[in-house]
Write a structure and sequence with these properties.
binds iron/sulfur cluster; 10% strand; globular; 19 helices; alpha/beta
Length: 424
């Protein structure tokens, strides 16, 4: 790795705390990723991205900023990245998947709050995240109560803009969300100094659609038995989708899919044919939160789909590529987003039905419902998932956990018992 210290210093990072974070990553990555057997060769690009997670990509962001570009940080798949791209900006996902910085976060947040919220607050307050420090604006949303209130606190420490996301999917909610998307477009135009044109917006929609199509292609290939790639590797790619350059990422995912197609043709899998297949559903898993997938895949099963925002919820639907006015395209963007079945909606019956459909489509043997501690929307919605699972005879394991490693042994025991039951 190149010496990026000067760059980190210029960004105002707390170098000592940042070193601790960076030093912790390589051994974990070695164990969780590099020690896997029979990985596709084209994973080398994604390994490089992780190795350079605070290096090369941050340098790219600084170069973009030196040339007048603006960086927009986000925490939710509802924030329309197409609009940021159309104005010449760059979108970066800021959700944190690690509890470094939790002590700082607990100075301004209650202890018992979702680890994802605590993580991003901790990153900001401890000054250990170069992505955060590169942002010209961070965009929050009113999805869940914890995030909504945390953005009020965060606005004391950085430039925060909040989008009002609806709670229901009625006509009045669609009208509200459409007006929020238009207000967001105006903010982005002011920030970048660039007016969004029809051509620019159409081009941005195509680019983001292409990224989603590449991820859909990857998802389809995992239906094969044996699957040509591990669930952990697929999750890693879905996590990287939120902060890599859109076009390069799309190309690299497609190159990987070319290799995976060959593997499928030749019957080459990452695990033996007939290995127990699991669909994971629930709260997003932000990088480097690989705890539960690692437990599942080192207990003799393979994950074949993620019903998560770091998964299908992000890429399952495309924005229509119909030419028209900017207003018409914004409407299409807003409608695609309101179709996302996040647990913050009420009612949200389509999500439980989708989990059952994924279970069948991906030839799964069981579903693991994963909830981050203190995430009320997903914890309460596990009732709906359980109801559908019972009705459709889908074996279900419910897991609630946080970012600590303390419960790994206990979780492993439960996962192993569940997989044993599936074999029986
Ligand atoms: S789970 Fe809901 S609030 Fe969280 S990123 Fe996904 S859509 Fe946004
Ligand atoms: S995981 Fe749940 S509580 Fe945490 S930010 Fe997402 S929706 Fe909110």
């Amino acid at each position: 790795m190149a010496d990026w210290c000067q760059m980190w210093e210029a960004l105002g990072l707390n170098l000592e705390a940042h070193d601790q974070l960076l030093n912790a990553l390589p051994p974990i990555y070695q164990e969780v990723y590099l020690d896997q057997e029979n990985r596709p060769e084209k994973m080398d690009y994604f390994d490089l991205v992780v190795t350079e997670i605070h290096g090369l990509r941050i340098k790219e962001l600084q170069d973009i900023k030196s040339n007048g570009g603006k960086i927009v940080g986000t925490f939710c798949v509802y924030v329309p990245e197409e609009i940021v791209l159309a104005a010449g900006g760059t979108c970066i996902g800021l959700c944190g998947g690690v509890d470094v910085g939790a002590d700082e976060a607990e100075k301004v947040l209650p202890r018992n709050i979702c680890p994802l919220i605590k993580s991003f607050m901790g990153f900001k307050l401890s000054r250990i995240c170069p992505y955060f420090e590169s942002c010209d604006v961070v965009v929050g949303e009113t999805t869940c109560d914890g995030k909504k209130k945390a953005f009020e606190v965060l606005s004391d420490f950085t430039n925060v803009y909040v989008m009002e996301t609806p709670q229901r999917k009625e006509e009045s909610d669609r009208t509200l969300w459409f007006s929020e998307v238009k207000r967001f477009k105006e903010m982005i135009e002011d920030l970048t100094g660039n007016k969004i044109t029809e051509e620019g917006l159409m081009e941005a929609i195509r680019k983001v659609n292409n990224k989603r199509k590449a991820l859909q292609r990857l998802a389809e290939l995992r239906k094969a038995d044996p699957p040509p790639i591990s669930g952990k590797d697929a999750l890693l790619i879905e996590q990287i989708a939120f902060y890599d350059d859109v076009e390069r990422f799309t190309q690299k995912v497609n190159e990987l899919c070319d290799e995976l197609e060959e593997r499928v043709k030749q019957g080459v899998g990452v695990v033996p044919k007939g290995t127990t297949r699991i669909v994971v559903s629930g709260t997003p898993m932000a990088i480097p939160n690989w705890k539960v997938p690692h437990i599942i895949e080192t207990s003799g099963a393979v994950i074949v789909a993620e019903e998560l925002c770091t998964g299908l919820r992000y890429f399952q639907d495309l924005t229509p590529e119909a030419n028209g006015s900017v207003e018409a395209m914004l409407k299409n963007i807003a409608e695609r987003h309101i179709g996302i079945d996040c647990a913050v909606y009420t009612p949200n019956t389509e999500r439980a039905e989708k989990v059952a459909r994924l279970f069948r489509e991906y030839g799964a043997h069981g579903v693991v419902h994963y909830v981050l501690s203190f995430c009320d929307p997903y914890a309460v919605e596990s009732y709906q998932i359980e109801k559908v699972a019972k009705k459709e005879n889908i074996p279900l394991l419910k897991i609630e956990t946080d970012y600590s490693q303390e419960d790994v042994g206990q979780l492993k025991t439960r996962v192993e018992a569940f997989l044993e039951m599936l074999k029986g």
